[in-house]
Amino acid sequence: GLPDGYTANSKPTGVLGGGFVGYNWQMGPLVFGLEGDAQAAGVKGTGYYSYNGGAPITDHVNSNTDFEASIRGRLGYAFDRFLVYGTGGVAFSNTNYSYVYGVSGPPVTNFAIGRTGWTAGAGLEYAFTNNWTVRAEYRYADFGTETNNSIVFGGGADNEKQQLTQSAVLFGIAYKF
Fold first, then answer.
1. Which of 4, 81, 100, 154 has its Cβ near the most Cβ atoms within 10 Å?
2. How far apart are CA 101 and CA 155, in angstroms?
3. What is the pLDDT of residues 2-52, one digit of tens each?
4. What's the alpha-carbon Rg for the chain, to the nearest Å?
5. Is 110 exposed, middle or buried (0-12, 13-18, 19+ CB in 10 A)?
6. Does 153 have pLDDT greater than 90?
7. Paired strand residues for 120
8. Considering only CA atoms, which of 59, 46, 51 is closest in space to residue 103?
9. What predicted TM-score, i.e. pTM, was given to this entire model?
10. Which CA distances in Å does 108 have to 15, 111, 169?
11. How many Cβ atoms sit within 10 Å of the Cβ of residue 104?
12. Which residues pair with 157 in a beta bridge?
């Protein structure tokens, strides 16, 4: 296996697409809400291992996040048809990992990790009719660090830690009942 001191960092990129449902209560200009969402995701990245930040070697890890969801509270302030809000709650993710020994060899280990973490963000929403709104939102999510003890590199077992955080810009359209 790889000796201690080897790390692989990647900055996965991609798109999310899905839907959300929720309920809002308005008291004067204050808006309180509860919302849930689910998205199919295509967020992929590759990290090549290096020793203590030195030159990368050919061993690498590929990641592919294929599903995300969250359940969040919302607190906002309405200005006529505009709503400025903050949001936060629990987040869920499913990420598949494949570890490759050498430049292009077949993966030596594949596994998926379902993760639970937290998310927080802020957004703007505009009601362009009495029932239809559009929104733009930034959210940060932290799914923590997981350790997998069954990764095999070069004939040896390694303890691999995966830390997953995410920054996302989300756009949406909603119909209010």
1. 100
2. 10
3. 666 677 888 899 999 999 999 999 999 999 999 999 999 999 999 888 887
4. 20
5. exposed
6. no
7. 88, 140
8. 59
9. 0.86
10. 27, 10, 34
11. 7
12. 152
Residue 124 in this model has a pLDDT that exceeds 80: yes
Residue 58 is predicted with a pLDDT of 81
Residues 177 and 163: their CA atoms lie apart, in Å, by: 40
- Helix (H), strand (E), coil (C) string for the chain: CCCCCEEECCCCEEEEEEEEEEEEEEECCEEEEEEEEEEEEEEEEEEEEEECCCCEEEEEEEEEEEEEEEEEEEEEEEECCEEEEEEEEEEEEEEEEEEECCCCCCEEEEEEEEEEEEEEEEEEEEECCCCEEEEEEEEEEEEEEEEEEEEEECCEEEEEEEEEEEEEEEEEEEECC
Q: What pLDDT does 125 receive?
A: 98
Cβ contact 135:125 at 8 Å: yes
List, for residues 86-108, the tens digit of each pLDDT value.
999 999 999 988 888 777 667 67
Nearest residue to 60 via CA among 163, 165, 151 = 151
Beta bridge partners of 45: 63
